[in-house]
Specification:
The complex is a heterodimer of chains A (558) and B (105).
Chain A lengths: L13 E5 L10 E8 L9 H4 L5 E6 L5 H6 L6 E5 L2 H4 L6 H20 L3 E5 L10 H24 L3 E4 L1 H8 L1 H4 L2 H7 L5 H19 L5 E4 L10 H4 L12 H16 L3 E7 L2 H10 L9 E7 L3 H12 L6 E5 L2 H10 L4 E4 L5 H4 L16 H22 L3 H7 L3 E6 L5 H10 L12 H10 E10 L2 E12 L2 E7 L8 H13 L5 E4 L17 E7 L2 E6 L10 E4 L1
Parallel strand pairs in A: 2-3, 2-4, 4-5, 5-6, 7-8, 7-10, 8-9, 10-11, 12-19, 15-16
Antiparallel strand pairs in A: 1-3, 12-13, 13-14, 14-15, 16-18, 17-18
Chain B lengths: L9 H22 L13 H4 L2 H19 L21 H14 L1
Helix pairs in contact in B: 1-3, 1-4
Classes of the chains: A alpha/beta (558), B mainly alpha (105).
């Protein structure tokens, strides 16, 4: 036998660059490093899967050098650490293996504390076996604890992703996915199909951090949310229950509910009389209620037209939308007229495919769902409901009065310091002076004068703090409001309150023009302030009579 | 498909050989190695590709053979990464190695 080449430890790190795919525009450069106790080179195929998102360069570090890479200076945007079970244990998962996992988690946490970047780990693909039942139970428990250590790490570190390698290989079947001879001879335990499946999971994990998630799923009703056509079959004859075919639609509704819980907005478009559509929700017990939809359109218009209308109502781009329908003609109609909308056919005759559809939509994936995401869902729903109300109201005044707006105004509330500063520094349009403040400066203004923060609540929800006014000396230094609360005369009523509180003095104010605040150019003129001087620097005002009362907007002083 | 036995027919051997050649050609594209595109039977592949490419060639060939003959035949052996005995020292040697391993596997 002659001398042989070695896989383990015999390979210098390899750097491979892959430019953007011809004809594609890439938004950014991205470096990915791979290290593991297996040959990681085949995972380099991930570059092709995310070529539309980034120009990727790949570096493969030495096999087995996990600790060294984690503790060392290697700098990449994404570090993939791929470990098979042999890194944690030799024969069977046990307490020592759990300790090894904890050590790995500490190393990862330490790296993230000193270096930016994303780090991807994997669940451990291993099926314990034992001739002793209790030993098998212990092994299964230890394996679960190893994975739990990794999940805890991801929970506490936003930069960490965990791909489910164990689940991915289980879907293929471990017998098909694993090549044990190759594992021991060449440090490569995975069949090509398994490599492809793992590469897809890596691409998903990376893409979820690079790509904006679509926000809205628009779903058809007849033969999608339920089996049957409500206008022809009648509400009572629709099938949506625990028997086939009703169970297919019941399951779809449950899946949609789950998506809603993960921060996705649900809408419906259906060619039906509105009363028929509403009657289904009123008369049938189903997982989805009418209130679960942020908005719906039930009429005889083209679905593309209705989706465009929904986008306008929610103030979202069409590239935030996904459309689901059982009818290929409707899918094609929307696809042709609204190319930004991602369309999927819900083929209820093939439930084995139809019911895996939603989980397979890559553009719905996200690293996690924040409380802010979930709050936004409610805000979109509230905004859609306001617009529905406005559409049906006889007049603007009637609409505004029906909103039952209450404005809670606090003066010098330290608890609102962070939000007030954030709002001051990101509001450009409805901002009289566009003066920026640090958090310390806002605190100082609270000590030296008055910082008013206004929180707006109406019958459709709580918008949070949306307005800040700062008065120091005898001057209104800052007055601004988030655009999402505009158009309801709330701003004038808040200014009226501020003037009442500060108006004993000769209150001065100023409009200072910027590239973006034209919308407030005449705000003071229209609300009882008189121009004192005017020039390129803007206009100076003094308070005269102040804004008129808007009686249907109730101020609550806190 | 009926799995071939050790007395596999000529057509079975041809199919395996074609699968092995097709896999190599596909990987040459993947590796962006145009210099290996028109490879001759005596070319020393072992000298031309690194260990990781050898492993990839092995895995992909195993997979293609599985699709061709309908069963998994391990191709890995101690000789493949051996400087003197590797069948990859001659391209035709590699093809013959695959065909023989499948025929007797």
């Amino acid at each position: 036998m002659g001398r042989g080449r070695s896989i383990a430890g015999g390979q210098a790190s390899i750097r491979v660059s892959q430019g953007p795919v011809s004809g594609m525009t890439t938004a950014r450069a991205l470096s990915i490093g791979f290290v593991g106790n297996v040959v990681t080179n085949p995972f380099g195929k991930v570059t092709a899967r995310i070529a539309d998102l980034a120009a990727v360069s790949v570096e493969h570090f030495l096999i087995g050098q996990i600790e060294q890479v984690l503790a060392g200076p290697a700098s990449v945007d994404v570090l993939v650490v791929h470990l098979d079970h042999r890194w944690f244990f030799d024969v069977a998962p046990d307490e020592a293996a759990v300790a090894r996992a904890r050590g790995l988690a500490e190393l990862v946490a330490a790296r993230l504390a000193r270096a930016p970047g994303t780090l991807i780990l994997n669940t451990v693909p291993f099926v314990p076996v034992s001739s002793v039942e209790s030993d098998l139970h212990d092994q299964l428990e230890a394996l679960a604890r190893i994975n739990a250590v990794l999940f805890d790490l991801a929970r506490s570190h936003e930069q960490v992703s965990i791909i489910d390698a164990a689940g991915t290989l289980a879907v293929l079947g471990f017998a098909n996915a694993l090549r044990e001879r190759n594992r021991y001879m060449y440090q490569m335990p995975y069949a090509p199909a398994a490599v492809d499946a793992l590469v897809e999971r890596y691409a998903d994990a990376i893409a979820a951090r690079l790509r904006a998630r679509r926000k809205v799923v628009v779903v058809d009703a007849d033969n999608t949310l339920w089996s049957g056509v409500v206008g022809e079959d009648g509400v009572e004859n629709l099938e949506v229950d625990s028997d086939y075919p009703g169970i297919v639609h019941m399951q779809l509704q449950r899946q949609l509910m789950r998506l809603k819980g993960l921060g996705i907005l649900l809408c419906a478009v259906t060619k039906n009389n509105e009363e028929d559509f509403r009657a289904v929700f009123a008369q049938r017990a189903m997982p989805l209620r009418l209130e679960d939809f942020v908005a719906y359109r039930s009429n005889w218009s083209e679905k593309s037209e209705n989706i465009r209308d929904l986008a306008a109502t929610l103030n979202l781009g069409l590239d935030s939308f996904i459309f689901l329908d059982d009818n290929p003609f409707e899918i094609e109609e929307v696809r042709a007229r609204l190319p930004g909308v991602e369309c999927h056919l819900f083929d209820r005759t093939r439930p084995e495919q139809a019911l895996t559809l939603l989980d397979g939509i890559a553009s719905l994936r996200a690293r996690n769902v924040t409380a802010e995401d979930l709050a936004k869902t409610e805000q979109y729903r509230g905004e859609a409901q306001r617009q529905e109300l406005q559409r049906s109201a006889a007049s603007m005044d009637e609409y505004l009065a029906s909103l039952e707006v209450r404005v809670h105004i606090a003066r010098n509330n330290l608890g609102a310091l962070r939000r007030a500063t954030q709002l001051i520094n990101k509001t450009n349009q409805f901002n009289l002076t566009t003066r920026r403040y640090t958090e310390d400066e806002v605190a100082t203004a609270m000590r030296e004068g008055s910082v008013y923060t206004a929180r707006v609540i109406d019958r459709f929800g709580d918008m949070g703090i949306v307005c800040v006014a700062i008065v120091r000396g005898d001057e209104l230094e800052t007055f601004l409001m988030s655009c999402r609360a505009l158009g309801r005369r709330i701003e004038a009523q808040i200014l009226r309150y501020v003037c009442q509180q500060e108006g004993e003095r000769d209150l001065k104010a100023r409009y200072r023009p910027s590239a973006k605040n034209r919308m407030v150019e005449t705000f003071l003129d229209n609300n009882g302030f008189a121009v004192v001087s005017s020039g390129p620097e803007g206009k100076a005002y003094r308070l005269t009579r102040g804004p008129d009362d808007t009686p249907y907007i109730h101020i609550v002083a806190e | 498909m009926t799995p071939p036995t050790s007395t596999s027919s000529r057509s079975d051997r041809d199919a395996v050989e074609a699968a092995a050649r097709a896999t190599f050609s596909r990987l040459v594209e993947t590796w962006d190695r145009s210099d290996l595109k028109d490879i001759g039977p005596e070319t020393d592949v072992y000298e031309q590709i690194d260990s990781f490419a050898v492993v990839e060639l092995l895995l992909e060939t195993e997979s293609e053979i599985e699709r061709t003959v309908g069963r998994y035949v391990p191709l890995a052996s101690e000789s493949i990464l051996d400087n003197t005995q590797s069948p990859l020292r001659r391209f035709q040697g590699w093809i013959d190695y695959v065909v023989e391993t499948v025929a007797h596997g």
